[in-house]
Amino acid sequence: AQSVAQPEDQVNVAEGNPLTVKCTYSVSGNPYLFWYVQYPNRGLQFLLKYITGDNLVKGSYGFEAEFNKSQTSFHLKKPSALVSDSALYFCAVRGHNNAGNMLTFGGGTRLMVKP
Amino acid sequence: EPEVTQTPSHQVTQMGQEVILRCVPISNHLYFYWYRQILGQKVEFLVSFYNNEISEKSEIFDDQFSVERPDGSNFTLKIRSTKLEDSAMYFCASTRSGGGLSTDTQYFGPGTRLTVL
User: Fold this and answer.
1) How far is A15 from chain B (nearest CA, A)?
2) Chain B, nearest residue to A40 by Cα
3) CATH code reported for the domain at B5-97+106-116
4) Which terminus has fewer CB within 10 Å in chain B: N or C?
5) Rounded to 5 degrees, what are φ and ψ at A62?
6) Which residues make Cβ contacts (< 8 Å) with residue A15, sequence separation at least 6?
7) Tens-place pLDDT, residues A63-81
8) Count of other CB atoms within 10 angstroms of residue B96
9) Which structural domain range is residue A102 located in?
10) What is the pLDDT of residues B65-86, one digit of tens each?
11) Are strands B10-13 and B112-116 parallel, antiparallel or unpaired?
12) Number of inter-chain CB pairs under 8 A, A vs B
């Protein structure tokens, strides 16, 4: 079975400050890891993914995430937050052996960036 | 940029009625998925579909649910007899390739909000 934990329901950060949204996962074998963002009344927008290789993955809108195998984590980061980054962020995992490509999502973290 | 589209954006139905949610995946994609998100809860996998067959389904996807690719562009989710607890946002997604070794990203549509009264 695969699972994802996002330990923080909400993260508050001031505009211009760095942000981190935490994610830990559990999966059999090597993971494929994803971050999606959801704006109000919108669908899930893909931000970035880790497949293999470099542990630091860069994605859309200046976001990046660091894969840490020993800690089974994939935290989302951005050096300087914008008010427009305020949204709901979901981490998701898929195992290599998952033939149906099923993504398992975390519960989501609401990011609030204040001016 | 190609995107997944879904109709309707909002569907209101009475308990016990049948509903069909429609999705148009990205045109050259071959693998299709449905997820749902009950208000305030996490996004949950329902089913994956390839070559006119279900590849994988979750425990949520019981006999009340069915999926179909009725033509070359649409992918539908049918709920035969809706229950109050089926009220949720339903997301369609697609990928170009699939299977265990696929690294493709699932691209999601904007969702259909289903309200069962």
Assistant:
1) 26
2) B110
3) 2.60.40.10
4) N
5) 80, 5
6) A81, A82, A83, A113, A114, A115
7) 999 999 999 999 999 999 9
8) 14
9) 3-114
10) 999 998 888 999 999 999 999 9
11) parallel
12) 71
